[in-house]
Amino acid sequence: MKVSGRCYCGQISFEAEIEPDKVRVCHCTDCQTLSGSAFRTNVPVVQGTLVLKKGEPKTFLKSADSGNRIVHAFCPDCGTPIYSAVPGEPPGYSLRVGTLDRRAELVPSRQIWWRSALPWTSDLNLPGGSGWTGNRRSAPGSQ
User: Fold this and answer.
1) Do 26 and 121 meet the contact criterion of CB atoms below 8 Å apart?
2) 86 domain residue, yes or no
3) 37-76 pLDDT, tens per residue?
4) CATH number at residue 73
5) What is the pLDDT of residues 85-101, one digit of tens each?
């Protein structure tokens, strides 16, 4: 599937071919910390198809306790995570699903590192609506 995506501020944009049947949710503690959320949703890129159309992401090389290394790329202006890459020739990329224009079509087929999942993520069938339904006084930016 051909997709395009961008960071929040628009400084970084890209195109790629992805493997939509391999969308996965990762619950590892690194993904929790690096995403600032309970989990991260990723999709692998077909090798050799990722093209940066605009901008250059900043990268951070993470070394795991196992010795495995992974590069994390993000927008240097707004901080949006764009991809991770396993170093090598050629590198293997995984895109952050939230940055993709066709993200609504990408349904996860697998969850990994489930033993690190936060307990409340096992049932996210929560009430909600199409907009902010909480107390307006506690909404960010409201007075």
Assistant:
1) no
2) yes
3) 888 899 999 999 999 999 999 999 988 777 888 899 999 9
4) 2.170.150.70
5) 988 777 789 999 999 99
CB under 8 Å to 131, separation ≥6 — which residues?
A: none
Domain total of the chain: 1
Q: In what order do the strands lie in the sheet containing 110-112?
A: 58-63, 69-74, 81-86, 92-96, 40-44, 24-26, 110-112
Tell me the whole-structure pTM to 2 decimals: 0.80
Is residue 95 situated within a structural domain? yes
**CA-CA distance, 17 to 90, in Å (whole number)?**
15
Assigned domain for 129 exists: no
d(CA 124, CA 37): 14
Q: What range does the domain containing 68 cover?
A: 2-118
